[in-house]
Amino acid sequence: MAKQIDDEYYQLMGQIQAVDFVLVELTLYLDTHPGDQQALQQFNQYSAYSRQIKQVFEQKYGPLFQFGVSNDPGPRWDWGRGPWPWQV
Amino acid sequence: MWVYEKKLQYPVKVSTCNPTLAKYLMEQYGGADGELAAALRYLNQRYTIPDKVIGLLTDIGTEEFAHLEMIATMVYKLTKDATPEQLREAGLGDHYVNHDSALYYHNAAGVPWTASYIQAKGDPIADLYEDIAAEEKARATYQWLIDISDDPDLNDSLRFLREREIVHSMRFREAVEILKEDREQKKIF
To answer: Where does Mn(2+) bind (chain B) (predicted)?
Structure first.
């Protein structure tokens, strides 16, 4: 059974996608510009922000990551429950 | 190892059931310049590439799997409500009799993916030039897909993917320069 998906799901997911896109971009940029301190600072800032909104998301909609990367699975094992990304 | 994250890199919306468009999108799923080929090419080359660009190949290779998932999502959403008759009309009758509506790694013409699409030469410049070419070919494919697509929602996601090819190409070009500089320095000292 998939969990109930509401407007907030899409809103939070959209925020996560936006913030994580910044992190993907900065990751690739830093791979070829490892000495850019300003980019590194930006990376750290967005990384903290990403963790913060994912915590909010996961409390409501379950873990985003497998294998214990999302540290708190909650009172029941929710990983196998949808919706999966292609189902929303 | 790899860790899955239960999210798409960028949202995928489709306007209507459209198996014809799904058929075209398969070019980026199991085609020569598609996302599967890209991911497997970079992640395989990284074992013998100089240390300075291993991180880049790992990260771009990983992002390609996120793009593969976006393409799969597009195909899934465009075909999930299609009847066998609609699939046949879209030219997917051959696909249907073998796979039902399951996805499979083949290109738009139904040719299955093959490892001969990718190369690992062991020569870092040769490998990175291949990677730059692969990104440019994938960018061109996305452009042709956008041109042929009549789904405005889908085109938004396709434009995102087209831009990613441009960024990857740019980063690979920088990697070439990093290796060239390194080579020059070694000659001097």
So the answer is: 35, 64, 67, 135, 168
